[in-house]
Amino acid sequence: MSEFNFKLETSLEPLEAGAMPIGRTGVISTPHGDIQTPAFIPVGTKATVKSVLPESMKNLGSQALLANAYHLYLQPGADIVDEAGGVAKFMNWDGPTFTDSGGFQVLSLGVGFKKVLAMQTDTVQRDDVIADHKQRLAHVDDDGVTFKSHLDGTKHRFTPEFSMQVQHQLGADIMFAFDECTTLLNTRAYQEMSLERTRLWALRCISEHQKLTQERSHKPYQALFGVIQGAQYEDLRRKAARDLGAMDFDGYGIGGALDKHTLSTIVRWVSEELPQDRPRHLLGIGEPEDFFPGVESGADTFDCVAASRAGRNGAVYSSDGRFNITNAKYKRAFVPLVDDCDCYTCLHYTQAYVHHLVKAKELLASTLLTIHNEHYVVNLVRRIREHMESGTYYDFKNEFLGRFRGRSL
Description:
This protein is α/β, with parallel strands linked by helices. It has 2 domains: about 40-305, TIM Barrel (Alpha-Beta Barrel); about 315-390, no CATH class. Helices cover about 40% and strands about 15% of the residues. It has 15 helices and 16 strands. It has an 8-stranded parallel β-sheet. It has a 3-stranded antiparallel β-sheet with strand order 1-2-3. β7 (about 140) and β8 form a beta hairpin. The termini are far apart. The model is unreliable at about 115-125 (pLDDT under 50).
């Protein structure tokens, strides 16, 4: 019997009279605990949120963590994680876990773009996309993807079946079907071809998942989410949502390189087509301003490396926007890192001390800044949920964004 369930709770009433309510709160139940949604899921790519103890992630409010199947397959190996009892036990994490399928690596290794760069659409669209001065490390065909390891150059082959095998060994509560993640630079014709490829891969993932679930019936049930692609095209996004929505998935990921200006519109297209009784995860979205359009358009959970990456580079999230602690004005600032924050870092360390750590290239700088930034985004989404439940969401949104952007709305 499945130990996975999604229970709807509150619907967010839209501002426009007569519009369909899309945003909602709910609870995702997994074998390792519940996730109150909307929720932000921090990314621990290699079974660790860089520089931070799993216990610290729990203490700052994280309900679940997401790891990467491709990276853990390369190192230490999915079989080792399986022997350890699964990724949660392996990393001493007391709570639900997600693994992504390796599909994003089709984009990042295949075309050499970071995701944000792939959103720049002022170039001529083409089928064979590759970033300037980059080497293609992933080659896609209808059966799967051949990767060249970024660690040692060895070749590896991922198919939908193999991705399922790896993710079952990793043992996460929620995993994603293997998909091809395209860029916004690809032509419409390529997007159509890729969408059909992802649809067929989804069917193969379900088949392999069902087989492995039976073979590993002694293990806790792992939920499988399909991934909706289709770039910026409404008809393709809606088609993908209808096609995968009719399949036997436990939930859905909304993927692909997204132009932030159309994020809300694209998520709404998908949410209108997908089954209402299954959760929707918005992949790779995690900047503070992005949660509001994501939630309003129907996303239940989010993941992104932005908060931890920003911290490792000296950037700090605050109610008044983002600032860089390396600025000289913080050298003698003997005040909390952020004065209205109750995270461990802000309760115990000053701007001057953290400034010193960053300038001295001390490892503790990454730890303290990551704790703060992850606390900030995790608890921002928690507050969004609370205001949705209390009926004060839009007031909270206007107040937050007005201060975060430094102007009145």
